[in-house]
Structure formats: structure tokens, C-alpha cells
Amino acid sequence: MSDKLTGGGEFDFIERVRRRELARVPDNRHSSLITHHSSLLKGIGDDAALLRPRAGFDLVITADLLVEGVDFRLDKGWTTPRDLGHKALAVSLSDAAAMGAWPCFCLLSVGVPRALWRGRFLEEFYEGVRALADVYGVRIIGGDTSRTTGGFVVDSVVIGEVRRGRALTRGGAAAGEQIFVTGSLGGAAAGLKMLEGGRARASRGLLARQRRPEPRVEWGALLSEKGLATSLIDLSDGLSSDLMHVCRESGVGARVEAASLPLDPLLAQTNVGADEALRLALDGGEDFELLFTASTRQAARLPREVGGVPFTRVGEVTAERGKVRLVRDGRASLLKPGGFEHFRRDS
Amino acid sequence: MSDKLTGGGEFDFIERVRRRELARVPDNRHSSLITHHSSLLKGIGDDAALLRPRAGFDLVITADLLVEGVDFRLDKGWTTPRDLGHKALAVSLSDAAAMGAWPCFCLLSVGVPRALWRGRFLEEFYEGVRALADVYGVRIIGGDTSRTTGGFVVDSVVIGEVRRGRALTRGGAAAGEQIFVTGSLGGAAAGLKMLEGGRARASRGLLARQRRPEPRVEWGALLSEKGLATSLIDLSDGLSSDLMHVCRESGVGARVEAASLPLDPLLAQTNVGADEALRLALDGGEDFELLFTASTRQAARLPREVGGVPFTRVGEVTAERGKVRLVRDGRASLLKPGGFEHFRRDS
């Protein structure tokens, strides 16, 4: 790790982060669920962070790159620096959760355009990261800072831990199992639509789903800790794409009941029609809910909700390898990744 | 991890990397030195990579962000995609080496401008990464891909392992110890000067020092494995800055002998004068050599060279906390980070 801005004296984001991390009091909100944590021997301030992995645990690591103008916009009130910090961390926490791992550490690399150096942007961005990190006891242990001649970019790297051999991948589903999703679907994509459409009828709730996704960390950790799922993925691209990943990696197929999909209740307060709501839920992406498969026996042991977030059965795993079918009004059609086609009224 | 370009079908860099990684035959060139490696349970292709850390080893992790137009240029033949891939990985390998760790895994997040999507750029960039990774048996286990509306950006994350409790930080130096550097100094900065000056008198060797730095992985691993150093850092910012980091973290001072600095021998073939050569060696940066401190007893056990790279004693640790002094022609002056001032002839 090096901070190429330090030498020039313009600012030293990572150094400021370091001081605050040292001063921070750990958050123990989730200590009842997860009491294990690898030791941090050295955080920000050396050539690299130094960890002592806890015996009996595997580690997961994931990186998510967000680029201004592509993955988010800072103009026209699309998001705030604080919400962007939240989202940058949230998407990586979601990836860790999607392995059944508890997130422990984060490295943030930020590329900062000149216009954002001196203002409050980075402070507020960091506060957004920090607030979410505190919820799960995640420590910021490194990263890098550079200028950019283009827009703001952030690469968010999260390391999580999961009890040895308990990680859940996309590859464990078997025919006959049931398919579940946490929370609700379509809200983030509806929020994005509102932003793209100039927010004439913006719902604050749906905008928040887009701007401040809540990773399902507790759900992921519980599924792996208690052995309640056979496969697990997070819904970042949309159910139609992400379920296909599970089918391909597991060598199975799936059948999804349209009527059972847990549409975001806020969609009902908008002028989004039934077809469009279904499309948003299937193809919209960025809900960052978890999708998992479970045997009947596992399903019977699922808690009604975790941290206030319920789950819904949306379909079943089939032996029809690589095929996802959507059943609506008693008729089944092939569902392609990101390719939900509007049903005609008469079909 | 998600590949936001996959959906659009434009390209899928990480997926291509995945296929090649699966097909790759591990390189065992260094197996005589390092036989330990954490297990990779799942690489590219799930929500996160999954590792099983090897018992008895600590892990280091580091991130380095390189931004086009700031950290490198692609125009005017400054570098090639292949050399850029090499350097992106090299800088992070160097950070791992600077903890005494052997690099094992890498995640690469790349932001790619539209103009570079379709050509050979990413292929060649990856080949550069891959060739260096092969030298040390590093596996590419994840990352992310996005478009950018600006230039090319890459965040290179490296995970390394070091025998438990053997990691070397910046904080272990004690007064009376000796200071050493590996290899030679000033070459990378001289290469940069040539690029900036239009390469009228470019030395291929100095350009290579700038474009394709060689991380001192074997040296770092040996120093920690054999317990031959008390502190360790890599020379990324320049000796004057990096030695100050060691002094601050260790609560010591240092005295450096100008005459003992191992100037890059290629500097003698240029029109760079003695003052300028000294300045490049002290402040130039990007040599990615290692600087370490060792007791007399440790120093006596140092091998003459490691992998063809020798070391040089450049000074000693003093009790003058936070002060680095440069001795030249029998006169000592205070050396500030990045702030070497030309000596006047009569001083």
C-alpha cells in the first residue's frame, strides 16, 4: 500500500482513516451471533495489513469496483457521498454474505478527481463506509489513494471468515430442493428507474433501496453456521441472471413461480404495472438480497426471519440442467438471464 | 465480485482469466525456498474467493491503485499493456515482500475505457500480470471489471503468507543496528525522467527499471524465514521518505552514508551528474528495492546475494528519534522525506 497523494501533501485520506480506526471502539452488536474474528496484528500504516486467521475458519475475499458515470453518478442528486460510501462497502459485504461468511476486514482504494480533494466529499464518503462497517464490526485495514483525471472510483475489498468447510457456493443445489430469497425484490431497480426518469414520482423508500442497499450479512452467516442451505448467491444482477449462475454451477435447473416472488411492497405505491414490477424483480438487479436452495429438512429449520428480514419460497430446483422456467398463471416459459419478456395479456 | 460488463456482452475479462487460471500449470520455480501455500478452495467464479489459510502462518494483504494519467501514461510509448500488467502486480508483490511474506493470491479490479475494450489491450495487460505471477506461483483468484468514462484504472490486491509471528514491519529497528538495501537505487526515477524528457537519450535498461520493476520477493521471504532483519520496508517513495517511515514507526533515527548508496550502474552511462544521481537514489522512488535493518549478529548471517540480487550496507540506526542524517564528504546534514537538496560544491 502506498498513498501517492501523501508526498504532494494535498491530502492523506488513508492516514486519516488510520487515525480514526485506531481510535474506534469495536461494535459488538452482533457478538451473540458471531463471536469469532481473525486477529488484526497490523492495520493501516505498514506496507501491508497483517492478519492472524483464526484456526478452524476459512476466509473469503471479494473486490467490487464502482466507477463514477458508470456505476453511479454524483450529479443531479443521484446519490450523496455518504450513501456512496455505504453502497461501496455494502456490495462487497453482500458478496461475503453470499458465501455464508461474516465480514471482518475491508480495504478501500479510492481514485479521487481534483475537484473532490478539498471539500467534504471524502470525509462524508468515509462516514458512510464507517457507519455500515460498524454495524457488522468490520475493520478498515488498508487500501490506496490516487488522483484521477476522470471521475471518482472506488475498489472495495472485503475479507470475511466462515467456519471451516461451511462456506456456501453457487454449486451445491440438487433437484427437488426448494429455492428461497430473503427480503423483497425489484425495489433497487425501481429506484434506479426513478433516478433515470428525473424522479418525478420518486419514492424515498425505493431511492433508498437503490442508494443504500442492506447486505444480508446475518442471513448468510446463519445459513452457513447452521447448515441450512445447499447453495447461496446474492442478487446483484437480478434473479433471472443469478439463479442461472446457481443452475450452471450446480448442474441443475429451476422453476420459479411468478406469483410467489416477494415484490417490494413500495412498488404498489407507484404507477409501475404488474408486468413491469415482475420484470424489475426478475431482471432489475442490485437488490442484494440472498437467494439460496435448501432441502425440505433444512427448510423446516429456517427461522421465520433474521434481523427483521423474512424469507420467501419462490420455486424449486429441477433436473432440467441449465434451464430456468418461470410459471405465471399456470403457464411455464423459459426465463433467460436478464431477458424477461413482458407477457401479453392474452398469453 | 461481479462483472458489470458481462451482462452487456461486451466482454468478460474476469471470465476469460478464470478459464486460463483453471488451465494453468503451477510454477514451482521457488518451491525450494517456499513450500507453504494456503489452499485455494474456490477461485474466480463465485461471489468471493475461498481460502483455507495454512496453520502456523499469518496473512498479509495489500492494495495498490494505478490510474492512467497519474501513475502511468499509455500515450507516446510510455509503457505497454504488458509492462503495465507487470507493474500493477509488481507494486503489490513488493508490499507483500516488504512484510517478509510470500505472495500467494491476487485480485485484479480493472476499469476499462471504451476505446480499450475490443482491442488486444486487456489480453496483453493480463499476459504481463500472468508472466510475473508465474514467477512466484501467485494465483489470480478474483477481482472486478467495470467500464470507465475516463482512463484505465487497476487496483491490484495481493495476499501473502508469512510464518506465524515472523512478519517484519517498519517498527522493529533499534539504535546501533545497520541499515541495508537490496539491489541498486535511482534507476526507476532516471527512467521516468527520460520518459518525461521525451527519451532523447533513453537507456533501455533505465526505462525497464521504471516500467518493469522487479519486486524483491525472495529477499523479503528469506529475511523473515531466517530472522535476519529487525525492520523492513520497500522503497516505493524513495529512500529519504521510506527510511523516515521506519524511523517514525521504530522510534529511532538514522545516518546514511551518501558514498555507500548503491547507485544504479546504468546511471553512469547517462549525463546525470553526481548530485542528480544522489537525488534520484534518495528521493526518486519506484525502485521497489527493500530496505531493512539488522543487528550485527544478523548481518553476519546475510547471504551475499539472493536470486542474483546483492545487498549493500548504507548506514546505521541512531537514537536520534525521527531524524535521518545524510553524511557526504564527511559532513552530515538533515535529510527530509523527498527533500534532498543539492549540495553546493563549496559546502
Estimated helix fraction of chain A: 25-40%
Assembly state here?
Answer: homodimer
The total count of strands of chain A amounts to: 14
Secondary structural class of chain A:
alpha+beta
CATH topology of the largest domain in chain A: Phosphoribosyl-aminoimidazole Synthetase, Chain A, domain 2
Greatest interface (CB-CB under 8 A), with counts per chain: A-B, 75 and 74 residues
Order of helices and strands of chain A: HEEEHEHEEEHHHEHEHEHEEEE
Strand content of chain A: 25-35%
Number of domains of chain A: 2
- Outline type of chain A: globular
CATH architecture of the largest domain in chain A: Alpha-Beta Complex
Poorly predicted residue ranges of chain A: 1-11, 342-347
Cα separation of the termini of chain A: 58 Å
Structure in words:
Two copies of one chain form a homodimer. With 347 residues, chain A is of the alpha+beta class. In chain A, 28% of the residues lie in helices and 27% in strands. The first copy, chain A, contains nine helices and 14 strands. In chain A, a hairpin with a 2-residue loop joins strand 11 (305-306) and strand 12 (309-318). In chain A, helix 2 runs parallel beside helix 3 (121-136), helix 2 packs parallel to helix 6 and helix 4 crosses helix 5. The longest helix of chain A has 17 residues, at 81-97. Chains A and B meet through strand 2, strand 3, helix 2, strand 4 and strand 5 of A and strand 2, strand 3, helix 2, strand 4 and strand 5 of B.
